[in-house]
Design a protein that fits this description.
By secondary structure, this protein is of the alpha/beta class. The chain folds into 2 domains: 2-169, HUPs (Rossmann fold, 3-Layer(aba) Sandwich), CATH 3.40.50; 182-272, Pantoate--beta-alanine Ligase, Chain: A,domain 2. It is 37% helix and 19% strand. It has a 6-stranded parallel β-sheet with strand order 1-4-3-2-5-6, with helices on both faces. Helix 3 links the parallel strand 3 and strand 4. Helix 6 (120-135) crosses helix 7 (147-159) and helix 9 (196-210) packs antiparallel against helix 10 (215-228). The longest helix is centred in the middle third of the chain and has 16 residues, at 120-135. It is globular. The model has no long low-confidence stretch (mean pLDDT 97).
Length: 273
């Protein structure tokens, strides 16, 4: 497995892997969900993974320093998964002191996480656009757990005519349904025991809405179940699967999305309808 830390090392390594390179962008602290992205890319061709904790997508009240880091462990996992190349830029490489440009996004970036974390998707779009320019992949693989993020990146790629295919990969879950996340390690035992109620509530609401139940009633019941489990929902909504606009009826391809607090840990999840 090749490791690149400078742009010249990256270009040399990527050139040797050919034009059908797939990219798995990550912030490290890898788990089985990340490795599923590597496996999906590896099934198509050579794969590069990036590890960069992006300061631009953290808000002033979010603890960048607390984000988990385990570079040695991450590299071992990527090598075992068959990754061909790991891109490990530092902040000075990703954001040179004379850089002045960022990507401004709207559309699917406006609501939900966009409202809860102002500036977050500017940071996501900017770093992803930079990664695409650095690695020049044919395709990039993203987990469906961050459904809104996938739609924001898809829209950016379409609007800017970037020659990258965006490939979403289904969420990987624990046996009890909890979506894998690097932040799950911060859950207390009691919070971890309660956390699967979030996915259970989404599944029940999705089943009810698909069967014709009123959307508002199904959402209210799901939110009550999340609260009863000891979590604090920030939003729980039925949205258009691409635009992320809220829906009052099931009239087109849709997604149930949610963010909830379990103690200090913010959990995201979603299900298709």
């Amino acid at each position: 497995m090749l490791i690149a830390r400078t742009l010249s090392e990256l270009r040399d390594a990527a050139a040797g892997l050919g034009p059908e390179l797939g990219l798995v962008p990550t912030m490290g602290a890898l788990h089985a969900g990340h490795l599923a992205l590597v496996h999906a890319a590896r099934a198509v061709g050579p794969v590069a993974a990036s590890i960069f904790v992006n300061p631009l997508q953290f808000g002033p009240k979010e603890d960048l320093a607390r984000y988990p880091r385990d570079q040695a462990g991450d590299l071992a996992k990527l090598e075992a998964a068959g990754c061909d190349l790991v891109w490990l830029p530092d902040t000075s490489v990703m954001y040179p002191s004379d850089a002045v440009s960022t990507i401004t996004v709207a559309g699917p970036a406006m609501l939900w996480e966009g409202e809860a974390r102002p500036g977050h998707f500017t940071g996501v779009a900017t770093v992803v656009a930079k990664l695409f320019g650095q690695v020049r992949p044919l395709a990039a693989y993203f987990g469906e757990k961050d459904w809104q993020q996938v739609q924001v990146i898809r829209r950016m790629v379409a609007d800017l005519l970037l020659p990258v295919e965006i490939v979403p990969v289904p969420t990987v879950r624990e046996p009890d349904g909890l979506a894998l996340s690097s932040r799950n390690r911060f859950l207390s035992p009691a919070e971890r025991a309660a956390a699967p109620a979030l996915y259970a509530a989404l599944r029940e609401a999705a089943t009810s809405i698909a069967a014709g139940a009123p959307v508002a009633a199904a959402l209210a019941k799901a939110e009550a179940a999340v609260i009863a489990a000891g979590m604090r929902p920030e939003y729980l909504a039925l949205v258009d699967a691409q635009s992320l606009e809220p829906l009052q009826t099931l009239s087109r391809p849709a997604r149930l999305i949610t963010a909830a607090r379990a103690g200090s840990v913010r959990l995201l999840d979603n299900v298709a309808i």
